[in-house]
């Protein structure tokens, strides 16, 4: 397989993986929590690296995912103390953890850690094919293995708990009254978002994870009223943005992650204007 | 290090700039926090990046005023985009924030790679807008910060009563015949200017923290808006200057993260120990009550 094809496969995988939990974040009006999580996982990655001294260790994934969940918990703790409102709580927690991570990172710089401030923001999709792993006799980039694993996990979770997720998203009171634990489901979803962000982080960096988690589901939300269709459309829109973004980056010889986010914006704008039922044109007519 | 402040010209310039920036974003942050616009601040800061880079690409100049103007226009466009998405579609505010901040930032990074590839002298100057670089501040920056900051603060003073009413009870303000929409636009514009001024100190990624954290800390100590604004301005100034000096003295350390850690410590202390709202006192009260009630039982 050529390197170009591999990069596109990784980009499409990441986009599809991000779109799935993104649908529920957008519907639950929690999109900005993905902004917080995508920043703080860096803290987990750096602390994990300092402990195990190996950037390829699976413990880094575990640590980073836990930091994402910790972020959600801290935000809720602060909000529940009633000393600050939720938006301020988000705005206090993630900058602190992210800053600590960046400071530790500059302390580590010069070592054998190929993470710097720039790759933190943009990821290293171009170099992803060099980092390979052989499983079942298949020699593929590590990012393909990891992200398809996370994609499977997302599909499995949504498939198994589809009814519960749907009910607790659209009618949390009824869900609680019927005996589903909203807290448990909430934290399971947050763990999934966190894990997804960790997988995507290597490829597209901190801030563009947000574009892939929020953008495609927001566009899909303007196209359909059915949850199942919204999930499928989000994945499709995510993959289209990722692949067109890759070619835009090749054409302009620029950062792939940045071009992918730009294409998310372009696709969303098109949907925003032309969507058959909820689009701008229809609304103004 | 602090004696150098009075003798070293470069250090004095940096410290002065940091104090002024911390002061303005601290004061305006109070309104952002009270109006629950913390995340709007985050979105506008990120949205400013393509404006900075485009202003440089179009004019080829690194003059502070031109870059700030570009940032302000892009930040404003970002805020307008959020507003348009929320008004004209069924997408909610949170998703609009996330979408706008990440797409504008992505576009900014694309533009930044163009500038870096062209290898012009300006690239080093633009990099600092990501995480902030106090050491890069020169006297012309400080002059601009001082004049724009003075303008911002005097407008806040001039419209104090109106902004106060707008932050606490916009419906009442409207019923009293205040032009609420125009006041809203003015206050948001002032916040945008405070954000884009702060960018070179803290960077787009962490700017929202400099806006929100001093106000959140100050809120714990007082229930009066005037005291809160004064305190937030002071705390912002202190965090700004401490962070700027530490990062200037340590090689390879960006200013933004240091300032955020300093101001976060201030927030933590305020949350725990502020006289009335402090969490420690609440816990102590709770513990005492629990003991009192449990001993009363036979």
Automatic annotation (TrEMBL), chain A:
InterPro entries: ABC_BtuC-like (IPR037294), ABC_TroCD (IPR001626). It is found in: Cell membrane. The chain crosses the membrane at residues 6-27, 36-53, 59-78, 90-109, 143-162, 174-197, 203-223, 230-249, 255-275. Gene3D superfamilies: ABC transporter involved in vitamin B12 uptake, BtuC. SUPFAM superfamilies: ABC transporter involved in vitamin B12 uptake, BtuC. Keywords: Cell membrane, Membrane, Transmembrane, Transmembrane helix, Transport. The keyword Transport applies. The keyword Protein biosynthesis does not apply. It is a multi-pass membrane protein. GO terms for cellular component: ATP-binding cassette (ABC) transporter complex. GO terms for biological process: response to zinc ion; transmembrane transport. It comes from the Bacteria. Belongs to the ABC-3 integral membrane protein family. This is Zinc ABC transporter permease. It comes from Candidatus Viridilinea mediisalina.
Automatic annotation (TrEMBL), chain B:
GO terms for biological process: cellular response to iron ion; response to zinc ion; transmembrane transport. Signal peptide: none annotated. It comes from the Bacteria. It is found in: Cell membrane. Gene3D superfamilies: ABC transporter involved in vitamin B12 uptake, BtuC. One of its GO terms (cellular component) is ATP-binding cassette (ABC) transporter complex. Keywords: Cell membrane, Membrane, Transmembrane, Transmembrane helix, Transport. It holds the Pfam family ABC-3. Belongs to the ABC-3 integral membrane protein family. This is Zinc transporter. It comes from Candidatus Viridilinea mediisalina.
């Amino acid at each position: 397989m050529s390197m170009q094809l591999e990069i596109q496969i990784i980009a499409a995988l990441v986009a599809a993986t991000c779109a799935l939990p993104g649908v529920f974040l957008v519907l639950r009006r929690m999109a900005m929590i993905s902004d917080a999580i995508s920043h703080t996982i860096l803290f987990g990655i750096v602390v994990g690296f300092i402990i195990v001294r190996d950037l390829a260790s699976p413990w880094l994934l575990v640590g980073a995912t836990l930091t994402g969940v910790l972020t959600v918990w801290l935000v809720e703790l602060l909000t529940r103390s009633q000393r600050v409102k939720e938006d301020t709580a988000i705005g206090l927690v993630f900058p602190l953890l992210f800053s600590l991570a960046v400071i530790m990172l500059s302390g580590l710089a010069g070592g054998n850690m190929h993470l710097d401030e720039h790759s933190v923001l943009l990821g290293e999709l171009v170099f992803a094919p060099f980092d390979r792993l052989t499983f079942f006799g298949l020699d593929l980039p590590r990012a393909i293995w990891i992200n398809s694993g996370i994609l499977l996990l997302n599909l499995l979770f949504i498939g198994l708990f589809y009814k519960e997720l749907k009910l607790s998203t659209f009618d949390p009171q009824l869900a609680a009254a019927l005996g589903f634990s909203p807290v448990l489901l909430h934290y399971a979803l947050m763990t999934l978002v966190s894990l997804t962000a960790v997988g995507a982080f290597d490829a597209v960096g901190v801030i563009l994870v947000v574009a892939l988690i929020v953008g495609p589901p927001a566009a899909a939300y303007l196209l359909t009223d059915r949850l199942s269709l919204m999930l499928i459309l989000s994945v499709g829109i995510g993959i289209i943005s990722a692949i067109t973004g890759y070619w835009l980056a090749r054409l302009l010889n620029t950062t792939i992650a940045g071009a992918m986010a730009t294409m998310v914006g372009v696709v969303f704008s098109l949907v925003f204007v032309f969507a058959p039922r909820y689009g701008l044109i229809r609304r103004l007519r | 290090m602090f004696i150098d402040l009075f003798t070293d010209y470069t250090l004095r310039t940096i410290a002065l700039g940091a104090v002024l920036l911390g002061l303005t974003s601290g004061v305006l942050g109070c309104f952002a926090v009270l109006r629950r616009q913390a995340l709007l601040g985050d979105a506008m800061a990120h949205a400013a990046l393509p404006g900075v880079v485009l202003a440089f690409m179009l004019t080829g100049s690194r003059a502070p005023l031109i870059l700030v103007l570009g940032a302000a226009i892009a930040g404003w466009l970002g805020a307008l985009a959020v507003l348009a998405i929320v008004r004209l579609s069924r997408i909610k505010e949170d998703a609009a924030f996330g979408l706008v901040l990440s797409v504008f930032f992505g576009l900014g990074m694309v533009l930044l790679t163009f500038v870096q590839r062209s290898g012009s002298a300006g690239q080093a100057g633009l990099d600092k807008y990501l995480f902030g670089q106090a050491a890069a501040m020169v006297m012309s920056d400080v002059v601009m910060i001082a004049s724009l900051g003075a303008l911002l603060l005097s407008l806040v003073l001039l419209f104090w009563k109106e902004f106060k009413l707008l932050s606490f009870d916009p419906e009442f303000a409207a019923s009293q015949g205040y032009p609420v929409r125009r006041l809203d636009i003015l206050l948001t514009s002032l916040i945008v200017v405070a954000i884009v001024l702060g960018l070179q100190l803290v960077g787009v990624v962490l700017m929202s923290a400099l806006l929100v954290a001093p106000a959140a800390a100050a809120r714990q100590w007082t229930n009066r808006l005037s005291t809160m604004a004064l305190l937030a301005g002071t705390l912002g100034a202190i965090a700004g200057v401490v962070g700027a000096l530490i990062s200037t003295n340590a090689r390879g350390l960006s200013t933004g993260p240091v300032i955020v850690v300093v101001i976060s410590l201030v927030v933590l202390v305020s949350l725990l120990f502020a006289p009335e709202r402090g969490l420690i006192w609440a816990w102590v009260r709770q513990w005492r009550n629990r003991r009192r009630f449990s001993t009363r039982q036979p």
